[in-house]
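Per your request, structure below.
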C-alpha cells in the first residue's frame, strides 16, 4: 500500500472509505480543531475537534461579530474526537466571529470564523433555488482526444418557509465562442427551506476544447411547507491523491457515514460531493452511493473514487457533502 499524504479534513457533511493505493495530505488544524474559516447565513457547518483522552463530554459555542452567542448541545467524544454541526442563524451578524470547544472545564480548540450573507434571500412562500457559488476543473485525457470536467455548485433555497421539491438542474459547459461543449442534467429530490445543497458531478467530454464557463438552468417542480428531514452525519472526511499512478490530482474522497438518529435505520444514501479551494470557491465535485444498512448509533466507512481526476491536489482544501437518505423505522 503506497504511503498516504492527507490533503484535507473538512466540514459540513461527507463521504468515503480508506482505500488501498491512495495517498493524501492533511490541512492544518487550528488549535486542535478543524472547521471552515468562512460560512454563510443559513449554512450547516462542521467543527471537528480532537478530544483529550478520558473526556466524557464536550460542549461548543459560536460567538458572532455582534457578541451574540450560539450555545451548542454537549456531545460525547468517539475515538478521541468530537464533532458539532451548527447552523448559522439567518440573522447572524456579518463579519468575524469565533468558535470554542470545551471538554469538561478545559478549552481544547478555538478559531476565527467569518460569516457572509447569501447572495439572494426572500420571504416569498414560493421557493426559488439559485446558484450561490459555482466552479469547475477540466483536464485533458492522458490518452485520446477528450477531457474530464468536474464541477461543483452550491444551490440555495431562498424561501424561509417552503421546501423546494423535484429540483431539475441543467448544467451546460460553454466554450469561449458561446457554443455548448457538453450538457448534463439531474433532479435533486429536495432542497430544504433556507438550506444549501452541494451539487457535485463530473462529465467526460469528447473534446479538449477549454470550457469557459458553466451555464445553469434550475426548475422547481413542486414545493411544500418546511419539514424536518433527518440526515446522516459525516466524520473523518479526507481528500486523497494516488501518488503512484496519478500524482498531483485528486483520486478520491473518503470518510465515515454516521447514523446518529434514534429509532431509524439508514437503508441507503446518495451522496453529492463538492470540493473547495482554500478561498471557499468550488473547484469540482462528483457523486457517490452508499447501499449499506446502518443501524441507529452505528457508522460505516465508504469512499468516492470517480469524477475527481481533473482537480489539482494542491488546490483541494475542503469538502461539503449533501445526502439523499432513505430511512426505515427501527434501530
Amino acid at each position: 500500500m503506497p504511503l498516504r499524504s492527507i490533503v484535507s479534513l473538512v466540514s459540513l457533511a461527507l463521504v468515503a472509505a480508506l482505500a488501498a493505493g491512495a495517498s493524501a495530505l492533511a490541512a492544518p488544524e487550528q488549535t486542535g480543531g478543524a472547521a471552515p474559516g468562512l460560512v454563510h447565513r443559513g449554512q450547516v457547518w462542521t467543527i471537528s475537534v480532537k478530544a483529550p483522552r478520558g473526556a466524557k463530554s464536550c460542549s461548543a459555542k459560536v460567538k458572532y461579530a455582534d457578541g451574540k452567542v450560539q450555545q451548542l448541545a454537549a456531545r460525547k467524544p468517539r475515538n478521541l474526537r468530537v464533532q458539532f454541526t451548527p447552523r448559522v442563524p439567518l440573522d447572524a451578524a456579518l463579519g468575524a466571529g469565533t468558535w470554542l470547544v470545551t471538554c469538561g472545564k478545559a478549552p481544547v480548540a478555538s478559531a476565527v470564523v467569518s460569516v457572509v450573507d447569501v447572495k439572494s434571500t426572500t420571504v416569498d412562500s414560493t421557493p426559488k433555488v439559485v446558484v450561490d457559488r459555482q466552479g469547475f476543473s477540466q483536464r485533458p485525457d492522458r490518452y485520446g482526444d477528450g477531457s474530464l470536467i468536474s464541477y461543483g455548485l452550491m444551490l440555495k433555497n431562498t424561501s424561509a418557509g417552503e421546501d423546494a421539491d423535484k429540483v431539475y438542474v441543467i448544467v451546460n459547459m460553454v466554450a469561449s465562442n458561446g457554443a455548448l461543449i457538453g450538457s448534463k442534467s439531474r433532479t435533486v429530490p429536495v432542497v430544504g427551506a433556507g438550506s444549501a445543497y452541494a451539487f457535485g458531478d463530473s462529465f467526460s467530454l469528447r473534446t479538449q476544447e477549454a470550457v469557459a464557463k458553466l451555464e445553469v438552468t434550475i426548475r422547481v417542480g413542486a414545493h411544500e411547507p418546511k419539514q424536518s428531514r433527518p440526515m446522516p452525519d459525516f466524520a473523518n472526511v479526507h481528500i486523497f491523491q494516488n501518488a503512484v499512478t496519478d500524482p498531483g490530482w485528486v483520486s478520491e474522497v473518503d470518510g465515515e457515514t454516521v447514523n446518529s438518529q434514534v429509532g431509524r435505520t439508514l437503508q441507503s444514501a446518495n451522496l453529492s460531493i463538492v470540493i473547495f479551494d482554500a478561498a471557499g470557491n468550488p473547484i469540482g465535485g462528483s457523486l457517490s452511493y452508499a447501499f449499506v444498512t446502518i443501524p441507529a448509533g452505528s457508522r460505516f466507512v465508504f469512499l468516492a473514487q470517480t469524477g475527481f481526476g481533473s482537480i489539482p491536489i494542491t488546490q483541494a482544501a475542503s469538502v461539503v457533502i449533501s445526502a439523499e437518505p432513505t430511512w426505515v423505522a427501527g434501530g
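Confidence is low (pLDDT under 50) at residues 1-32, 120-124.

Regards,
D.
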